[in-house]
Amino acid sequence: MDAVCITADQHTVVWNLAARPQVIRRWRDTASAAVVELGAGEPVVQVVRLGVSELLTNVARHVEDPNCRLEISKVGPVLYVQVSDRSFEFPRIARVAPGWDTEGGRGLWLLRSQVSALGCTRTAVGKNVWFRCDRAARW
Question: Which helix (H) or strand (E) holds 8?
């Protein structure tokens, strides 16, 4: 599936896309530009770059169907980023710092340390993995 921006207003942007390794950089850049348009400063842009890269990479690596949805919303002083996919399996987030020679597990652990909240919710067709940046703390 090619990327399709299905909503773009002054508070929300949503894309349907196929999370494949070769397009992660493009989506990281696209998300960065979107949060700048929503008024985010450089600290938030960098966190969004990390988060979008990590969430889409997890879809590409761990979900059989790469088709997913990327949504970025600004609600008052809070920026939400969410990736919805078609897997019911929740990601595992390390409770303690993973070893630097470990194959995986660092991305979500590092993201959790940079955002005000990180979570996962089940949907009728899979799950949403999301994070939140509060303007007061990160903008």
Answer: strand 4-8
